[in-house]
């Protein structure tokens, strides 16, 4: 079984910064891609940013130039550095990981979510 534990959410003023972390643990053989999604009240969950094991990244247009995703493969951890935060970035942020477990079966898991609130 593979688990994700997120940390780093909180309240920040517009223009401020936050860094989210997500660590994967359990019966992992390899993790192919890790990413961050968010869901604002009354809206569907959307991709924020994703990164492959090789370092290829993908960002939502709304966060390009402000957010940076990075990954420590040795620690099975993904980070999301969020700068120049806007009120519209307020949401619950979820970590996602796709890979292969120690039984050589594919998996996809989600974190429990961490709330990011951008408000004055």
Explained architecture:
The chain has 120 residues and is mostly beta strands. The protein is built from no helices and 11 strands. It has strands at residues 2-7, 10-12, 18-26, 28-39, 46-52, 57-59, 67-72, 77-82, 91-101, 106-110, 114-118. The model has no long low-confidence stretch (mean pLDDT 97).
Uncertain segments are none
Order of helices and strands: EEEEEEEEEEE
Strand proportion, as a percent range, falls in over 45%
Structural class: mainly beta
Average pLDDT confidence is 97
Number of helical segments? 0
Largest sheet: 7 strands, mixed
Head-to-tail CA distance between termini: 40 Å
Q: Which term fits the overall shape?
A: elongated
Please bin the fraction of helical residues: under 10%
The tally of strands reads 11
> Over all CA atoms, what is the radius of gyration?
14 Å
Give descriptors for this structure.
120 residues, mainly beta, seven-stranded mixed β-sheet, 11 strands
SSE diagram, text form:
Layout: E1 2-7, E2 10-12, E3 18-26, E4 28-39, E5 46-52, E6 57-59, E7 67-72, E8 77-82, E9 91-101, E10 106-110, E11 114-118
Parallel strand pairs: 2-11
Antiparallel strand pairs: 1-3, 3-8, 4-5, 4-9, 5-6, 7-8, 9-10, 9-11
